[in-house]
Structure formats: C-alpha cells, structure tokens
Write a structure and sequence with these properties.
CATH class: Alpha Beta
Shape: globular
Oligomer: single chain
Largest sheet: 6 strands, mixed
Order of helices and strands: HEHEHHEEHEHE
Distance between the termini: 21 Å
CATH topology: Rossmann fold
Number of helices: 6
Helix content: 40-55%
Strand content: 15-25%
Radius of gyration: 15 Å
C-alpha cells in the first residue's frame, strides 16, 4: 500500500470502552486507518482477568491484536484480512510529545483524545474521528474540533465511518 493511499483514508481512533463492548468492533469500521492508542492496550490489560463480558472481550481483543502483530509491525500498520484497505495501528504516547494542552495527561481518556488531536495535526486534510461510548469524551472531542461518534454495532457500517 502506498503512503499516498494511506493519507487519503479516514483516521479512526478507538476508545477502550468500544472494545470492551464489542471485541470485534474494529472489523466493522470499513476502509480507513484504525488507530488504537497504547493507553487503550494498557486499559484492556487491566480487564483481561475479569470473569464477565468485559474480561472475555479484553482477552479476545488481545488475542486478535496478537495475530495482527504476527503479520507485521503494529506501529507501521497491519492490514485486516477481511478488508485489506483497512490498516490497524497501535499509537504510542510519543506521537503527541511537545503538544501543549490543558488536558491532564495522566488520564487515559485524555491521552486517547490527544492521539486524535495529534493525528489531526499530522493529517490536516483528512478526517479524524473518535469512536467512544463515553459521552464526556465525545463532548471533549467536540470542544477540540474532533468528530466523535458513539459506537453502535447495529448502525456502524462502512458508509457511516
């Protein structure tokens, strides 16, 4: 995949609660670059021992990401088997080093939002969208000019995102 094609795609940032709600969510977004902040991986790790649905979804998602990891570098992007136009990236907090913001960087939600802000800064001509079930995070995203949507597996389609 050429760098030029990658730059034309929507940049989708996924919050932890989406994955805990639906471990298969990233397979439902259609073509685009799906960005999973490292903060999300850290939060998922905390749920993996839970016996309920959150724990099960955390474990399933971790196994899925491990399969992706075996196919290539997650920091450089790995295509999904069901849609080779969709690449999955794991983003580190280093991508927003030097960004000035009043957001408390100790909070995972703020680091997730800062990932979206960093992508918007790096790709000003491309749509960056945050997918989260967290109402307050959607409000904060709106304040910072980031498009944000609630995740609903029944409404999510390639055309919507």
């Amino acid at each position: 995949m050429s760098k030029n094609n990658s730059n034309k795609k929507k940049k989708i940032v996924v919050d932890t609660n989406v994955i805990l709600f639906d471990s298969q969510a990233i397979l439902k977004f259609g073509a685009g670059d799906i960005h999973i902040p490292i903060s999300v991986i850290e939060e998922i790790d905390r749920f993996k021992r839970d016996q309920g649905e959150n724990g099960r979804n955390a474990r399933q998602f971790s196994r899925f990401v491990d399969v992706l990891r075996s196919k290539g570098s997650l920091s450089k992007g790995v295509p999904l088997d069901n849609n080779p136009e969709t690449y999955v990236y794991i983003n580190t907090d280093l991508m927003f080093a030097g960004m000035s913001t009043e957001l408390d960087q100790m909070k995972a939600d703020n680091r997730i939002l800062m990932t979206a802000l960093s992508l918007q800064k790096q790709h000003p001509r491309h749509q960056v969208e945050l997918i989260t079930k967290d109402i307050n995070l959607r409000i904060k995203a709106d304040v910072y000019g980031i498009a944000a949507k609630d995740y609903d597996p029944n409404e999510t389609s390639q055309d919507d995102l």
